[in-house]
Amino acid sequence: MNNNNNIIIFDTTLRDGEQSPGASMNTGEKIQIALQLEKLGVDVIEAGFAAASPGDADAISKISDAVRNSTICSLSRALDGDIKAAGNAIAKANKRRIHTFIATSPIHMEYKLKMTPQQVIKKAVDAVTYAKTFCDDVEFSCEDAGRSDVGFLKEILDAVINAGASTLNIPDTVGYRMPSEMGAIIKTLHESVGERAILSVHCHNDLGLATASSIACIQNGARQIECTINGLGERAGNAALEEIAMILRTRKDIFKDYNTNINIKEIYASSRLVSTITGIEPQPNKAIVGKNAFAHESGIHQDGILKNAQTYEIMSAKDIGLDKNSLVMGKHSGKHAFSEKLKNLGFSIGDDELKTIFARFKILADAKKEIFDDDIRALVSAQITKVKEVYKLVTLQLSDCNPGGVPSAAVTIDVEGKTITDAAIGNGTMDAIFKVIDRVCGESGKLKEYKVDSVTQGKDALARVVVKVVFDESKPAIMGHGLSVDTMLATAKAYIGALNSYISMKEGLRDINKKLI
Ligand code: KIV
Ligand code: ZN
Questions:
Q1: CA of 291 to the centre of ligand 1 (A)
Q2: Which of 12, 44, 170, 173 to mutate for ligand 1's pocket (most ligand atoms within 8 Å of CB)?
Q3: What kind of fold does domain 391-515 have according to CATH?
Q4: Tens digit of pLDDT for each residue in 269-321?
Q5: pLDDT per residue over 438-481, tens digit each?
Q6: Which of 133, 302, 369, 451 fits a 20 to 30 Å CA distance from 115?
Q7: What are the sequence ranges of the domains in the chain?
Q8: How far apart are CA 412 and CA 152, in angstroms?
Q9: Which ligand is in closest contact with the Cα of 77?
Q10: Which atom of ligand 1 is nearest to the CA of 101?
Q11: Are domains 8-278 and 391-515 of this chain identical in fold?
Q12: Are strands 44-48 and 418-425 parallel, antiparallel or unpaired?
């Protein structure tokens, strides 16, 4: 058994997480998440798949520039072009890794790759050898290892170790294996690999077993866990980082000498940031970060908790940085106190941004009696994930919706210094809002998803609206967020936010294409 019990946390929220339907993020958003992952203490950040698109490569390169403590990694297939794109994208990173993979299961080799096992081994060795010309730290993954022959896995792992791979990843790509089966595979591979390389696992959650399998693998010799915030990821997702970290901590009796570099106080902030940016909220009963994870409804439980929290709680909300319902401040709070509050919540905000967020806080404090930590988090997230505002909403006026009346919306929008006012009628108030914004901005968006929730409690709670809009049928839906105590105002802001993201994505691509010419 491995004597080194440091568990390397490899976060793939920005790569496998982004493969989750509807979770695409722009470069600015990816940088914010990467910086938060660094604060969380993640050892390796898989920042994307450089060969997937120029936008992905650009985001990985910018993250490589911004993050100093975590290793930055790009995924690549076992192809020279992919490996070169990965190597170039991570060139500026302080610590860098290339993660190359090829499938090893009979079904993938025969039908997808149309290659013999020996051809697959050669391709893997060539890929690792070429990746080593870009960086020392090379990880190799056997895609669909969960359904691969263990004898073949040993053979290919031996070959890539000899070519220089230092981390060997064993994904349960389709989430098929039971935890005991994954544990047994890792035990066999660990006996064969020994201390020549670090064994890693990457478990998918198709049967709800990703976290359990990852833990079983740790108990059998895996020393790197690939996971994501909120368990985001392809299909049913990946093992959830917060679950792995809290299991290792809460069951110290079992995992006595096992350590991670995760600062668990940053778990809640990381979860909120990822769900705000992706618009994908964890299910309410999700372990650790779901809305109900620390909520006690029944009288018996509440009574027990008041007498001794440990009667019904094995962890405390405070452990993960969630100070439940902590009342912040009101409209009389000053800028200094506000800036201290932001520091306590873990944000480091520059002076200019602080001014803007403080002004928004004051407007909110006028509209809302009590302001909670989550209100402040929502304000900050809205600010730091903002793209260039080509369109700014100046005013919104709505007709009242009397039965039999015609719903209408009038807006004034600032378009790069020029204000335009217009009005439209619609099938409902929201429809009128979207129509008039489209008209002013010369676009015709198709609304694919609309979500509204309240950030905290109370009749005057801040409404958070998330929209997903398609502006160009050949491109995925673009997300926009809006925050306001008024739901319709939040709706208009969210739609304009999506439009601004669309414009900045188009401009970003234009810049990248210019660079490529
Ligand atoms: O699930 C998987 O097999 C992967 C690999 C590319 C590591 O995501
Ligand atoms: Zn995966």
A1: 29
A2: 173
A3: Double Stranded RNA Binding Domain (3.30.160)
A4: 999 999 988 889 999 999 999 989 988 767 777 778 788 888 888 999 999 99
A5: 999 999 999 999 999 888 778 888 898 989 999 999 887 888 88
A6: 133
A7: 8-278, 295-320, 323-383, 391-515
A8: 65
A9: 1
A10: 6
A11: no
A12: unpaired
Best of 16, 138, 142 for a ligand 1 pocket test (most atoms within 8 Å of beta carbon) = 16
Nearest protein Cα to ligand 1, atom 5: 143
Q: Exposure of 67 by Cβ count < 10 A (0-12 exposed, 13-18 middle, 19+ buried)?
A: buried
Q: Which CATH superfamily does the domain covering 8-278 fall into? A: Aldolase class I (3.20.20.70)
CA of 110 to the centre of ligand 2 (A): 20
* Residue to substitute in 99, 204, 213, 235 for testing ligand 1 pocket (most ligand atoms within 8 angstroms of CB): 204
pLDDT at 365: 86
Concatenated DSSP letters for 387-421? Answer: ---SEEEEEEEE----TT---EEEEEEEETTEEEE
**C-alpha torsion angle, residues 374, 379, 383, 389 (rounded to 10):** 140
Alpha-carbon separation of residue 305 from 249, 292, 297, 302, 311 (angstroms): 21, 15, 11, 5, 6
